[in-house]
Amino acid sequence: MPLKLAITIFFVLLLSLLAEYVSPKVSGIISGIPTGTAILLFFYALEQGTAFSVQSAVFNVGGIVAVHMFIYLYYLCSKNNSKSNILFSTIAATSGYLAVSFIVRQIPFTLCTAILIPLVSIPLFSYLLKRIENTTIEQKIQLTPQILLIRVLVASVIITIITEIAGLVGPAWAGILSVFPTTVLPLVLIIHATYGQKQVHTILKHIPLGQWSVVMYVISVTFAYPAFGVYWGTILAYCPVAVYLFVLWKWHQRKAASLS
């Protein structure tokens, strides 16, 4: 548990710094890659066995649509330019996630049928969020030890709750919970409370684009874990993710060059 918590907190802090010192857009894309998913599936395999983790991975793919509902509801509920609606946005988004998760849980997924969900969900929610204006953070706050401590505490509470619940349920619900935005939610709360909703919306806009890499990762895990074990399987599963991010980076470079 301490290692699991430390790794996830590291990713949350890294993503918040990317949003502040690079751009919310980059942070959003990176938020979509398998960070929380990879961490949870890795520890599922270590603690419950590779068969449990592979079964969970199938429902992880199907559960991506629940994450998209979380993102979209948080966006809709936080349109009002007020930091006071953070709690309402979080409750509404989490409720939407749980409602969609309950529906997804009722579907007898195989890997092939589960993949159909993100094939529809990612383009759909990318379209619904495409009109969000990209913003940057111009006036960055000074990162004091107190601010970093608050960020760590926020991330720790959310991560602990989700991972403890996942350990008490079967592989199907564990798989759905493994796709819960364990890194995205603390990141969103940190940036929203610090800077406001516009920067958060930029992050949310670009998360679906990064989630193609989650699909690649989960497909790879279902084959790599049984064949190569947890450690090598994790490394091999990240190979297509690295290729995807490289291609995406090159595409953005060319797009930026064509506009300049």
CA-based gyration radius: 17 Å
What's the helical proportion of residues?
Answer: over 70%
Low-confidence stretches: none
How many individual helices? 12
Can you tell me the overall shape? globular
Structural class: mainly alpha
Note the gap between the termini.
48 Å
Task: State which percent range the strand residues make up.
Answer: under 5%
- How many domains in all? 1
Would you report the number of β strands?
Answer: 0
Mean of residue pLDDT? Answer: 79
Main sheet specs = none
How do the SSEs run, as a string of H and E?
A: HHHHHHHHHHHH
Describe this structure in words.
This protein is mainly α and 260 residues long. The protein has one domain (2-259). It is built from twelve helices and no strands. The protein has helices at residues 2-21, 24-31, 36-48, 50-62, 64-77, 86-105, 111-129, 145-166, 171-178, 184-195, 197-210, 212-259. Helix 4 (50-62) crosses helix 9, helix 5 (64-77) runs parallel beside helix 7 (111-129) and helix 10 packs antiparallel against helix 11 (197-210).
Layout of SSEs?
Layout: H1 2-21, H2 24-31, H3 36-48, H4 50-62, H5 64-77, H6 86-105, H7 111-129, H8 145-166, H9 171-178, H10 184-195, H11 197-210, H12 212-259
Helix pairs in contact: 1-2, 1-8, 1-10, 2-11, 3-4, 3-12, 4-7, 4-9, 4-12, 5-6, 5-7, 5-11, 7-11, 8-9, 8-10, 10-11
In short:
The chain is mostly helical.
Notable traits:
260 residues; mainly alpha
